[in-house]
Amino acid sequence: MRMEKLRATGRFLRYSPKVSVFDRRLSSNSGKSIHSSASGYGNGFGKKCRDDVIRKWNGRACFGLYGYQGKNFRDCMERGVLDDTRRIQHRGFGSLAEKVQRNASFSTLNSDDISHFKGILGEKNVVEDEERLTIANTDWMHKYRGSSKLLLQPRSTEEVSQILKYCNSRNLAVVPQGGNTGLVGGSVPVFDEVVVNMSLMNNVISFDKVSGILVCEAGCILENLITFLDNQGFIMPLDLGAKGSCQIGGNVSTNAGGLRLVRYGSLHGTVLGLEVVLANGDVLDMLGTLRKDNTGYDLKHLFIGSEGSLGIVTKVSILTPPKLFSVNVAFLACQDYFSCQKLLVEAKRKLGEILSAFEFLDSHALDLVLNHLDGVRNPLPPTIHNFYVLIETTGSDETCDREKLEAFLVHAMEGGLISDGAIAQDINQASAFWYIREGVPEALMKAGAVYKYDLSLPVEKMYDLVDEMRTRLGDSANVVGYGHLGDGNLHLNVSTPQYDDKTLAQIEPFVYEWTSAHRGSISAEHGLGLMKANKIFYSKPTATVNLMASIKKMLDPKGILNPYKVLPHSIDSHS
Amino acid sequence: MPLRNISLLLTLILSSLSHHNRSSNFNLFNPLPFHSHTHHRSSMKIMVAIKRVVDYAVKIRVKSDKSGVETQNVKMSMNPFCEIALEEALRIKESGLASEVVAVTMGMKQSVDTLRTGLAMGADRAIHVETSGQLYPLSVAKLLRALVELEKPGLLILGKQAIDDDCNQTGQMVAGLLNWPQGTFASKVVLDKEKQVVTVDREVDGGLETLCLDLPAVITTDLRLNQPRYATLPNIMKAKSKVIKKFTPQDLNVEIKSDIEEVQVTEPPKRKAGVIVSSVDELIDKLKNEARVI
């Protein structure tokens, strides 16, 4: 019994990082299967969250919180904006100073449509319940909000195919939705698009223990796959903070990067095959389980990262690496950004094949985590350091790996690259270190309004942008930099008490222009979604974007799949 | 949790005499005559016993032949209660009430890794009694007694139990063998260097119990006593030059034997998945006829 107490506490400590906003969403977000497939710890939060969401929307507090086209809370109340579906429904901030118009060529739902869908899916999986629609219409940051009146929950590829075939014939716009953890408004409706929620397609189809190839349905929650594979002695090649509710189909559709990319590469490398349903309902079987297959164009890559605009991913075949039992995590302090870079170079050289993550956060990010998340403590003595780096190694020989890591860190410390550091002595400590890094987005949410930018930049230039942004914004905002240093991926976040157009005008388009000037990408791993659809030219030349538009036109001539997103609205409206 | 309802506050003053000791039955183990030491305040030594166990975040797997728990290719760490014990010792030392913290462990060669962790947390030096094969609490207690007689610490702190065997016996046994007072399941420890006593709060089922023990004494630590520190790089580096002394049970004149034979180890029965009933009638039927609770 005593031990139970301890283990229970341990479990709590270990899982508390994951009982985040994501998990709360998970339970409130969707259907029965998520409830049953999610581990218990998430469910307890479901009710509370749902209540919060409802209360917020009923009271229209959200408009006050996020601003409505720059007007204040009272204005919004007076106008009764909730009922106006013709107006843009997402909050008027982010990159959407310019308004999006509903594409007039799309039909609106009628009762025949509903009965038709009930014929395909059965009563239960055609959801018109307002409470559930409110959740499906809202992204997790509460930044975007659609006004869809219908959520469909297919259980098979065949059902997805029938849905799309019908929608295509009726000109009904569709938004595919997985765990709805996206950060750029890609997974929620903009207007009244039909939501196709994939959470009931959550079966593992096969797993080959020799090759490590996993075939599963798109609605499998990443964490459940991680647990499934753990029992087989394997791991998923990707891991990210939203693992408790994000789904593999959504991961693939957005080409999610995450924490292990430095070791296992992007999904373009690890995804071996896909089954995709096209806009007209045709099923494309590209569900290969071969590592090498050079027969013609490798079309699956079109669907990895196209954010559901070309087709709905229904099944995924993915190569998973074996689970190595020796994992070490170190949390380190560096005095300046240059030391972080040098440390990365050294780590690649000296830790070599065992390096599995190299993450960084600045002191502003650490302060946020320490101030806003419960149960977090600074692993290091409270001296102010400017940068913190988390290094994870994964290997097969504990003694050897440990010695290697310690020798590397001691050397780095003697050389002045590290000013302090701690090495996790057990799994609980390792989880605590990871929570600091993974908890930054959640801490930012709790701190107030946040403008998020996910940029790929040359590593040596990366932090210059944060410094410049700090100078630009002065005391009016808290500028925070963190991210996947090993991948040259900066998360630039600007935290302010509330959203306002003035701050936004200070940030954009400056941040995009700066990134473009340094030949970076304005979206490293989050995608373009609705937020950055019109910003694509900062990172892609016109000829490229035009070819993308042609491909979109060919695969989805009526433009029903995830409209207003990914491609610029100027091009999109031609289709 | 009943322990949080502090409805009862008992204050017992225990003398160092063994007949007041709750575990006086351990006198059966024929303890050596009590040696009284002079404890110079500045030079008090604290000995902490630590154990290497399967990391408590690891899912335990039973070996297929039921001979024990799988430890091959499994992450091993310091027993969490031992971490708490060591942390407490370090805090006492940092507050100027002790001069040295000695971490000790018994077990096979790899136990040295756990001592290294202890040294990296801040222990001054370490002792490893190298043994092979299974060790039971009584043997550990006898080895500890021998080490105590060698090192003469003013306090011996242990975790209240190890999470692998859950015995919760070693601290009590060694107190009995040494004829020292014991404060088990400590959730608060206050050392008074003037009076040479230590006050220990214990979490008991009825609430909190406060004991006052004469030094030298044995303390076993509970979960809420403190939050152990991390091993920082500078301390990991310093630990490399700290001394780990090795002994064998023979060196300490302790014979390792056990009257206990482990017959087999099996996993607890798996919890059955729940079912969703479709109606109240079905629920009532199941409660009546399947669960037989109504």
UniProtKB/TrEMBL annotation, chain A:
GO terms for molecular function: (R)-2-hydroxyglutarate dehydrogenase activity; FAD binding. GO terms for cellular component: mitochondrion. Its EC number is 1.1.99.39. Keywords: FAD, Flavoprotein, Oxidoreductase. It catalyses: (R)-2-hydroxyglutarate + A = 2-oxoglutarate + AH2. The keyword rRNA-binding does not apply. It holds the Pfam family FAD_binding_4. It is an enzyme of class 1 (oxidoreductase). Belongs to the FAD-binding oxidoreductase/transferase type 4 family. This is D-2-hydroxyglutarate dehydrogenase. It comes from Rosa chinensis.
Automatic annotation (TrEMBL), chain B:
One of its GO terms (biological process) is fatty acid beta-oxidation using acyl-CoA dehydrogenase. Pfam families: ETF. It is found in: Mitochondrion matrix. InterPro entries: ET-Flavoprotein_bsu_CS (IPR000049), ETF_a/b_N (IPR014730), ETF_b (IPR012255), ETF_beta_N (IPR033948), Rossmann-like_a/b/a_fold (IPR014729). Transmembrane segments: none annotated. One of its GO terms (molecular function) is electron transfer activity. Gene3D superfamilies: HUPs (3.40.50.620). Its main location: mitochondrion. Keywords: Electron transport, Mitochondrion, Signal, Transport. Residues 1-23 form the signal peptide. The keyword Cell membrane does not apply. Residues 66-256 form the Electron transfer flavoprotein alpha/beta-subunit N-terminal domain. It comes from the Eukaryota. One of its GO terms (cellular component) is mitochondrial matrix. The electron transfer flavoprotein serves as a specific electron acceptor for several dehydrogenases, including five acyl-CoA dehydrogenases, glutaryl-CoA and sarcosine dehydrogenase. It transfers the electrons to the main mitochondrial respiratory chain via ETF-ubiquinone oxidoreductase (ETF dehydrogenase). Belongs to the ETF beta-subunit/FixA family. Heterodimer of an alpha and a beta subunit. This is Electron transfer flavoprotein subunit beta. It comes from Rosa chinensis.
